[in-house]
Amino acid sequence: MYDLFIIGAGPGGYSAAVLAAKKGLRVGIAEKQALGGVCTNRGCIPAKAYIESINLYKRIRNASRFGIEVGQPAISLAALAKRKERIVSRLVKGIELLLKNSAVDLYPATAEIVSPHTIRVGGTTIETANLLIATGSIPRPLPFPAPKLWTSDDVFALEKAPASLIIIGGGVIGCEMAHIFSSLGAKVTVIEALDRVLASEDREASSALVKIMREVDFITGARVCAIDGAGPHRVSVEAPDGARTLEAEHILACIGRTPVLPPGVKELGPDLRENGGLKVDEYMQTTLPHVYAVGDVTGAHMFAYAASKAAEVAVDHVTGGDKRMSFENIPSIVFTDPEIASVGGAYDGCSKGTFPVAALGRARTMEVNEGFANVYADANGRLKRISIMAPHATELIAWAGLAIDLNLSVEEFLHPPYTHPTLSEILKEAAEDLLGVSVHKA
Ligand SMILES: Cc1cc2nc3c(=O)[nH]c(=O)nc-3n(C[C@H](O)[C@H](O)[C@H](O)COP(=O)(O)OP(=O)(O)OC[C@H]3O[C@@H](n4cnc5c(N)ncnc54)[C@H](O)[C@@H]3O)c2cc1C
Predict the structure, then answer these.
(1) How many CA atoms lie within 13 A of 188 on its CB side?
(2) What is the model's pLDDT at position 143?
(3) Which of 83, 226, 361, 422: CA 20 to 30 A from 157?
């Protein structure tokens, strides 16, 4: 009999397991594939390992601007895949050790739900007081019949980049993939159904990215209606300027992700979201008694850090606490070059301060001059949203996220001295601009 049984050992599941064990609960966890889930094996870590190498490659190619003469560098997908394997296997071993040292029982098999308190896994029947579902998501299939296309699951095993690639979907994963493959020399076309790529980011970020990634052909407001051919593939597209057919060696579908429900749960009748995810309240409880859900399986905020934060909230509730998930203040991040990140809600009716990367001394020392920060505040001078397009924006957003989470005013945000010369000064200058006192903006 467990206090908490968890299905799925991605960032949502394994962090819940370790936390619950630290709080003295008896914990079991089932995982049918590798520990660490999509994040460690086919998502965040592999993608960022590739992007780190690619960004370094691009910097080496640009070395003469830094006063360094080097020969032509070479990069290969096979070498990137090997490096990724080394990183991932260490992290997976680390998670295994964490679970072991926390005395969490691991069941390496598919779990099936019989009732909110009874789970079947690998021939064993398990009883639990509480159940946490953290079964993640898989790439969403195209809504019409098509030949087998690549998804993000296939990319990290490739040994050679295609000469040409069509990416369907210009969201976070589609844009990161466009960055990876265009840097490797592929001719990349991104087809996006909405009127802009990265639709959840500031409009300015979308248009700046399209300008910066000039080697990529972005087609927006366009619908893919049919795909045929088994490589090269032909893609029929309805675009604002008319119908056309595009051809590429491969196609990568990045049209979102579908929650994966464990077998047996639907039969218990939980409330589901429109996209099939499990509906949860602010304590991460589903509508089934004693059944919690965290991460991608809830069909919202599909980021690893949202999954692990939700895990913390769910475990707190199981142990009688009152922590609540703040769904509005979950940052979003994109590892393009430059990186893009934002936190906070809608900015309609807010006043805005802005500052360009080009005017930052630190950015100049890095030979970077593209990007900006926007800071938005309401009529009471409280921060509502911060968005950044800059080197290391995915790091800077942590500081911005704290400010939004604490509901700070612009003045409070500006209270501490900001170190110089740093990229963080972009936040200071944008906030000062909002007050009309930015020293470095005429
Ligand atoms: C290419 C790519 C890049 C990404 N980059 C980022 C990033 O930079 N930052 C970020 O925060 N997020 C990123 N994400 C998203 C991130 O990977 C997910 O949000 C995160 O993995 C969700 O965690 P999870 O715990 O909900 O589920 P998952 O990581 O999907 O783990 C779920 C686990 O449950 C297991 N499972 C499922 N059903 C069962 C069952 N019945 N029995 C036993 N086990 C089961 C699965 O095998 C899987 O291991 C990226 C995703 C992709 C695809």
Answers:
(1) 27
(2) 87
(3) 226
